[in-house]
């Protein structure tokens, strides 16, 4: 198991981040590092601020105060497309696929037109799509519209799009929720595989089975505050955190 060490490169550095929605403090003085190559899981009860934290990183929301640095440079004032172009890709809780486009088209829209993949008539891009479809077991669905896919297939398409993005950091918002056990195993294997290839992953997850199987490190949010971070064993066996997690979700 990998644990963050001081020698590890910090890709994303969050310092004293705050976000208020009127009187509600959705993110409350959060300081967190995402080290390269580490799979971090963000857990916490509904409404803890997990998605808001992603939105603040990706430019979908503007922080009330505090900073986010990517590879040492501030992300202040960046639009979501600019953040994506820097190498931070995300998925959404509600997926946000192009429902009327085919599976293949959904994947291709993520591939930067200026990248080497499109040189020489786009054969490399097509080849990459073929690989990704095989990895996500969507090969047979290549020409189907996203709207016609089964639920688990849509979840994998969302993942396929991030795989096509060439981003260094993946922010995944409940990507495995509602998956059946077989899809779930495939999903964990796939993410572990990409982590081994050098992708840094931060994943919001309620399924504690996935948290245990996938995480190198768990960060626990509650009412906008980062209450604890550590190994999944340490976090999940903490009775105080368990009471918050299960108490507030009940
Ligand atoms: N755009 C917004 N405007 C006002 N309030 C918001 C907005 N976005 C989120 N909130 C509030 O901020 C708090 C944190 O919401 P957030 O969606 O980040 O929680 P979460 O941890 O992702 O929860 P869940 O596990 O249910 O997805 C909630 O109280 C939510 O209602
Ligand atoms: Mg959320």
Description:
This protein is an alpha/beta fold and 250 residues long. It has two domains: 7-87 and 167-250, 3-Layer(aba) Sandwich (Rossmann fold); 97-166, no CATH class. The protein has helices spanning 50-58, 80-86, 103-108, 123-135, 151-163, 181-196, 208-214, 232-236, 239-249, and strands at residues 10-21, 24-35, 39-43, 65-70, 73-74, 88-90, 169-173, 200-204, 217-222, 225-230. Strand 7 (169-173), helix 6 (181-196) and strand 8 form a beta-alpha-beta unit. The longest helix is centred in the last third of the chain and has 16 residues, at 181-196. It is globular, with a radius of gyration of 18 Å. Bound molecules: adenosine-5'-triphosphate and magnesium ion.
């Amino acid at each position: 198991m990998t644990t963050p060490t001081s020698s590890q490169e910090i890709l994303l550095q969050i310092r004293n981040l705050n976000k208020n929605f009127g009187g509600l403090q959705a993110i409350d003085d959060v300081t967190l590092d995402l080290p390269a190559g580490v799979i971090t899981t963000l857990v916490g009860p509904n409404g803890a601020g997990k998605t808001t934290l992603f939105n603040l990183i990706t430019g979908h929301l503007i922080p009330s105060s505090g900073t986010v640095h990517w590879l040492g440079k501030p992300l202040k004032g960046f639009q979501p497309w600019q953040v994506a172009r820097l190498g931070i890709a995300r998925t959404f809780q509600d997926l946000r696929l192009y429902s009327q486009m085919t599976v293949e088209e959904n994947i291709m829209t993520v591939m930067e037109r200026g990248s080497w993949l499109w040189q020489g008539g786009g054969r490399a891009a097509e080849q990459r799509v073929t690989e990704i479809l095989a990895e996500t077991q969507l090969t047979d669905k290549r020409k189907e519209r996203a709207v016609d896919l089964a639920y688990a297939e849509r979840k994998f398409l969302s993942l396929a799009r991030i795989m096509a993005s060439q981003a260094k950091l993946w922010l995944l918002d409940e990507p495995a929720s509602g998956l059946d056990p077989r899809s779930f195993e495939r999903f964990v294997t796939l993410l572990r595989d990409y982590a081994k290839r050098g992708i840094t992953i931060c994943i919001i997850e309620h399924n504690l089975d996935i948290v245990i199987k996938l995480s190198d490190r768990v960060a626990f949010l509650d009412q906008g505050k980062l209450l604890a971070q550590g190994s999944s064993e340490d976090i999940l066996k903490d009775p105080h955190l368990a009471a918050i997690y299960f108490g507030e979700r009940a």
